[in-house]
Amino acid sequence: MVKWKKMFLLLLLVCFLSTGQTFAQTEPTPVNIQINAEPQLFSDPMLRDERGHFLAPMAEFFQKTGIQYDLSDDGEVIAFRDNIFIKFRPHHTTYALNGKELTWDVPARYHGSTLYVSLSPFIRYTDLRATFDEETQTLHVTSGLFFEQRRSRGLLKRLDIPGSQISVSIPYFWERTEPTSFRLNPKVGHLTFDVAFEQVDPAASLREQMEKARENTSIPPDYSMIENREQLIDNNTFYTRRYRGAPDPTQILLEETPAHFPYLSFSYFRIGDQLYTFTFRSDLSDIDSQVEVEQQILESVYSKIFSVDTLSEHYVEYALFRSLNMFLESPLYSNMTLNNQLRLKGAIDPDIESLEVTLLRQERSFQYTIPVREGFFNELVPVPFGLGFHRLILSAPTAKTSDETSEKLHFGEAGTLLLKCSLINLSETEALYVSPSKEVLSRDPRVLAAVAGLDKNNLDYQNAHILFKKLIDVYSIGEAESMREALQEKSGTPYALSLIYTAQLRAAGIASRIVRDEDSNRHFVEFYSNGEWIPTNPAGYISGSSKDERLFFNSNLYDPKKTKALDI
């Protein structure tokens, strides 16, 4: 018995010594840090362990580098940068990167009351870059080429407002100074933007709540009101008051540059049970530009109340996303709610000519092509299949990746895939038959020109007949198989001509679809009028010798039970 006690005590001693040795080996040391060549002084120091891993005080580092993050009630951290989502819990050995579980080199952990996080995943998977100067013990963190390759200062970045129910977009060259405060780079000029919010009764009068909030604001005595405005943006009412002060007379006398006018504005609105106050202050020469940016920010307000786990599911094919220098300015995440349309706006490598969107619901699929012009895209994509979940796949069909890129980390399949996510359409109406698609190019300028002269007072049936006559006068049967080629050559296969007529109808606001006769494998065009689908056969009229007018409207063209509508 004594022998076993001695062995047990010896084992405890060995464990204690080995643990103490481990602690001694991994005790990190403070290092200096520069961000974009500017020295930074944090309240809590940057640390480096003996294996070369860098640990940063999370809140300060994220604030200095613009990494968005949220803390859940149960302590989970959700960080977001450049469409890369990283979820983790302090003292856990794993983290989730865009839904894929990976292992920390050094788990996030508390030093005293400060949460420290390893920089490894942020340096590896986002645009951040880091080098270490052994001589000066300084970590140099930069944004690589990501920001420098931006082709416009007008790009906005979307940021969450911690503790609130909204996110907003601000210009990329603005900085976050506090969780709810932002500013223009001081080297450019003086401008600040602050967000305040408070709990209110959602059933009470918004105007009364706004007036009460105004009582807590202070307007300098030499400021005069230049605008008092009420506007409706996405079903939310915004009340805005703008003030301007007198310029500094010393500046007017001594400087040839335009005078800088002190400017102040307050905007009030309510979402859910929170009343928000946006405060803008500036001292710039161009107030009009300030007001324009302010309006952009108001229009970018996005409510997260009805979102489902907004930051938890997002799937990015990282290697291609990164190699193409892709950036999404508009919000996009799994379980995002919308109403028949999705705005996709952002930037990508200028060599990319287009992006491909595929939307799926059960066995139905819909494809849409987003044009890319000089590296930018901004498109309203139809979400076609009515109420419920849609799966979205975004790809770059013309992308070419190098061998070096293809060897990097991929999530899922390689190739042209950029990202996947799910969407929740809240509309009960199917948008498919009034929307442009990859094949039905109803926004093509040549299609829009064909419908420009239609009388808006006509019935849909009348305008459909006018377009039918125009089509058969202009086009002939040919070999062009795609709609784009048929538009160029003024001739095409029967299917291509059916696409043109369908596109013209949709451009005129008339719901239309192509159906295929399963017996003859021929295609017909139907448009919706007065509660029923009207069958037409423009290609048959053009190719037939009889030129029978009944090919515009003839219920005996085909057996509806033996036709299938195409999801295009």
Structure characteristics:
4 domains; Immunoglobulin-like; about 575 residues; 13 helices; Protein Transport Mog1p, Chain A; about 35% strand; Copper Amine Oxidase, Chain A, domain 1; about 20% helix; alpha+beta; globular; eight-stranded mixed β-sheet
Q: How would you sum up this structure in a few lines?
A:
By secondary structure, this protein is α+β, with helices and mostly antiparallel strands. The chain has 13 helices and 38 strands. It is globular.
Q: What gross morphology would you assign?
A: globular
Largest sheet: 8 strands, mixed
State the total count of DSSP E strands. Answer: 38
CATH topology of the largest domain: Protein Transport Mog1p, Chain A
How many whole angstroms does the radius of gyration measure?
30 Å
In CATH, what is the class of the largest domain? Alpha Beta
Q: Give the N-to-C terminal Cα separation.
A: 82 Å
The residue fraction in helices comes out at: 10-25%
Strand content: 35-45%
Q: Tell me what the CATH architecture of the largest domain is.
A: 3-Layer(aba) Sandwich
Average pLDDT number:
79
Uncertain residue segments: 17-25, 144-153, 306-313, 403-414
